[in-house]
Amino acid sequence: PRAGSVPGRPRRSAVQIAAPPRRILVVFPRRIGDVLLATAAVRALKRAYPQAGLDMLVFDGTQGVLAGNDDIDRVITVAERPTLGAHLGLAARLFRRYDLAVSLLAGDRPTLYAWLAGRRRVGTLVDDRKNRWKRRLLHAWVPFDDLHTHTVRMNLQVVALLGLRARGDPVASCPQAAAAAARSAFPSLERERFAVLHVSPKFVYKSWTLDGWAALAQALAADGLRVAVAGGASPEERAYVDALLPRMPAQTIDLAGRVDLAALACVLSRAALYVGTDTAVTHMAAALGTPTVALFGPSNPVKWGPWPAGFDADLPSPWPMRGSGRLGNVFLVQGEAHCVPCREEGCERHIASRSDCLTHLPAARVIDAARAVMSGR
User: Fold this and answer.
1) I need a labelling partner for 52 at 20 to 30 A (CA). Which of 106, 207, 242, 324 fits?
2) If you count DSSP H runs as helices and E runs as strands, how many of each does the chain have, helices first?
3) Do the beta carbons of residue 333 and residue 262 sit within 8 Å?
4) Cα dist from 125 to 34, 70, 130, whole Å
5) Is 368 exposed, middle or buried (0-12, 13-18, 19+ CB in 10 A)?
6) What is the pLDDT of residue 5?
7) How far apart are CA 185 and CA 261, in angstroms?
8) How far apart are CA 224 and CA 371, in angstroms?
9) What is the distance between the alpha carbons of residues 90 and 100, in angstroms, rounded to a whole number?
């Protein structure tokens, strides 16, 4: 595609900016884990334009994962399903307030928000006839790839439209207030060697088994680690943790629903090991450099595998579509089935469905991976 200055042309060439932008808006209204992965692009922008004020627009309820992130000056939130009045109010707040707007999502709303906010606009779009109208809202765009390119790399490709050396890691932070909350929930946090097990993802189809978690916890306790259990605060997640706790080692710390994301980041930053499924917390642990075991079943690891801390290769993704292995501080363990990864919501195709590839994942494989990533093997 050819370079130029007219919005709407499909191109990957650098956008010319006469002067460094004074105000930048990054648009990313999506789920918590996605927002965390977007912070790699935010960091690349902040390194390139350190004097710019940088704001981020996200869904209300996801901003907790950005707490303590020094790259961001202000977080603007919008409801996932806002009223017309809320839409109009946000449009008035955004309209041409920014020298540069960067949309990291290919949807209608993020592209429109970027068009409203920025005098110059770059983003990603689905390259088909249905989405062609959005090309005219951006000065440059890259085709969105939902299969073969990792989310972090996809976001950095958008930043590269500005002619920048687009490199960066996802950022998870431990603010001072959050550190105090973490110590309150886990008083011996700074004195013990421990493992964090995030046992209850938001969606059932990403979950492992009670038997698996119990066997893993007992093995880690036998290796001399204290076990801390993490999970969400929803009634379903709380019930799952309550069913598991009687089978856990003595003196297991229950953090599920009792610390927010920022405090949990402080706990993760001191952990000797983290084990979890395809969740935002798994991405946090990887970003913090914690030895991390990620259990993957239906999810596409090429797109969603945890980004190892310091990974800086010019590759579409750290992970292949099929197979388990270790890279840096992350050991990705893929479930066992001929259909993995199906990229569906469980075997019954809904979020409350189980996934056989995870249901039949042996605890011995996860225990071996945990010991390997802790030892550096």
Assistant:
1) 106
2) 12, 13
3) no
4) 17, 29, 11
5) middle
6) 36
7) 13
8) 12
9) 17
Token pair, residue 201, equals 């993802």
Bridge partners of residue 194, in order along the sequence: 226
Output the pLDDT for position 4.
35
Query: Which residue numbers in the chain have pLDDT < 70?
Result: 1-14, 313
- Dihedral in degrees, nearest 10, Cα atoms 31, 133, 85, 55: 50
pLDDT at 13 (0 to 100): 57
pLDDT attached to residue 10: 43
Predicted pLDDT of residue 315: 81
Q: Name the CA dihedral angle for 126, 99, 54, 143, rounded to a multiple of 10 degrees.
A: 10
DSSP string spanning 329-371? TEEEEE---TT----SSTTTTSTTS--HHHHT--HHHHHHHHH
**The tokens of 123 are what?**
């983003």
128, 14 Cβ separation under 8 angstroms: no
Q: In what order do the strands lie in the sheet with 194-200?
A: 253-254, 226-231, 194-200, 273-276, 292-296, 330-334, 325-327
Instruction: Sort 250 into a burial class: Cβ within 10 Å, 0-12 / 13-18 / 19+.
Output: exposed
**Residues 255 and 266: beta-carbon distance below 8 Å:** no
Task: Determine the straight-line distance between the first and last CA of the chain, rounded to whole angstroms.
Answer: 44
**Backbone torsions φ then ψ of 325, nearest 5 degrees:** 170, 175
Q: What is the pLDDT, as a whole number, of residue 208?
A: 95
Q: In angstroms, rounded to a whole number, what is the distance separating the alpha carbons of residues 212 and 335? A: 13
